[in-house]
Hints:
Blueprint: H1 2-62, H2 69-78, E1 84-87, E2 90-93, H3 97-109, E3 115-117, E4 122-123, H4 124-127, H5 134-138, H6 140-158, H7 161-169, H8 173-201
Antiparallel strand pairs: 1-2, 1-3, 3-4
Helix pairs in contact: 1-6, 2-8, 6-7, 7-8
Amino acid sequence: MITYNVFFVIKNILFLRFLLIIGSVLFTGCEASNNLATHKNDATVDSNESALLNIIAKEEKNNGIPDNMLNSIIAVESNHMPYVVNKSGKTYRFKSKENAANFIKSSVKEGSKNISVGCSQLHYKTHKRNFASVEDMLEPEKNISYAANLLKNLRNRYGSWEKATKMYHSSRENYNKAYYKKVMRQYLKTKSKDRKQTTHSI
């Protein structure tokens, strides 16, 4: 009887150790998968921002906008995030164009009138007629291209990039003066960063 009990206890101990080993392997595998997924997401975010910066640089060049001027405006407006919607002063960030478009459509149905769209934060009511659809307005390349052309036209109309930047935001001086200062801080910050990178590369 004693021998049988000892055998039974040893058998249970070995079985428990087996379960612990299996559990450890499974946990390590899940942790590795989670880390891999995180890195993939980070890579996607970096890739998206890099693509936006390339589009912005191309539109600045095509429209004769000073380097990093439009880039600074978009940094202030959306932090280079493509599917941003501002509704009545509150910012909403979406992972997909479809989700952002659905939010805009439902907000319009509810009667919301103060809505800004995409990375360039184009005012929906003012500019929607120049786009085929809400989804079209959210498309980063079209959104940025439109913003670049708008900024260029404002410069031609008002005679300087300072006034163009102010009017891009608002015609009301009590709003656009503070906005211009914010854009210029970003502009100088970006210029300083570019100089450091150039010096480091040399």
